[in-house]
Fold this protein.
Amino acid sequence: MHDRGGWPTEARIDRSEHELADWELMMDAIVGALGGRGLMNVDELRRGIESMPANAYEQASYYERWLYSVESILAEKGVLAAGELDKRIGR
Amino acid sequence: MSEHDHDHGHDHPHAPITNGDEPAAAPRVRALEELLVEKGVIAREDVRARIDWLVSRSPGDGARLVARAWVDPAFKARLLEDARAAALELGLDPGPSPVVVGVENTADVHHMVVCTLCSCYPRALLGPPPDWYKSLPYRSRAVSDPRGVLSEFGVELDDDVEVRVLDSTADIRYLVIPRRPDGSDGMTEEELASLVTRDSMIGVAEPAAPAPVG
C-alpha cells in the first residue's frame, strides 16, 4: 500500500504545489525535535505511516500521515496517554 | 471543518487554534506541540529553530553545486562521490541526511529520482520536496513508466538514451547534475546557477535555456 514503486496506475501527476502551511512546518519540526531527543527516528516514522489503514493512508495528506504516525508511536512509547491529545483539543 | 469553535478552556493568549479552511490536523498538530512542550519532551525553541531551518532551504544551494560542477571537473568528481562533502566545500549546509551523492546526466544516460516508499529527498540542498514528488502517482509511475512521466514533465528523450530511475531511501539520497545547456559557454558560474532549476536536479526537467545573446 505504501510501497508504490511500479504500482499499477495511469493516474496523471498533479503538479500543482503549495507552500507548506504553518502546521505542516510545525509537524515536520516536531518530528525533528523528537529525533533530536532520541524519541523517534525516521524508521519509526515510516513504520507508523505504513501501519495506517489503507483507506486512511490513501486519503490523508502528507503531514496528516506524519501526525498519525507520531500519535501512534508516542502512544506506544507511553509519551502520550490514550485520549490525552483529544482531551487537550476538547473533543 | 470547524468543530473547534468552542471555548477551549484556558485563557492564556496564543495564536488562534484554527484558521479558516484548515484541515482538522492543523489544530491537532498545534495541540500536540503544546502538550509535548509542557511535558518537557521537546523544547519550543528547538521546534522554532527547525522550522526556521526548513523555510531557509532552497534549490539555490543545489544549483550552486551544479554550476560549480559544470565549470570544474575535479569538483564534479567530488560531487559525484559525496555531495555532502562538496556542499561543505562551498560553505553550504548539507543537512542531516546521511549520504547524498550526485549523479550526472549525459547524452547517453538520463537519471531521475523518486522515493517509492515515501519522500526521501536532499532537503538541505533543494528545500522541501514538491507535492507531486510525494504523490502516489509519481511514486508509482516513475518506476513503471519513467519515459511517460518525463514526457508529462516536458522531457522528450531519444529512444537510445538510457533512463536510470534512482529510488531514494532514508540512507542515501541523490542530486542530479543535469546536462549543461548549449549556448552557455561564456556564462559565469553565477549565471549558470540561475539556469539550474529544482526539477532539473530531480531529473524531471532540463535546465533553463540561456537567454539569447544580443
Chain A touches chain B through 54 residues (CB under 8 Å). The radius of gyration of chain A is 15 Å. Residues 22-36 of chain A form the longest helix (15 residues). Chain A is about 55% helix and 0% strand.
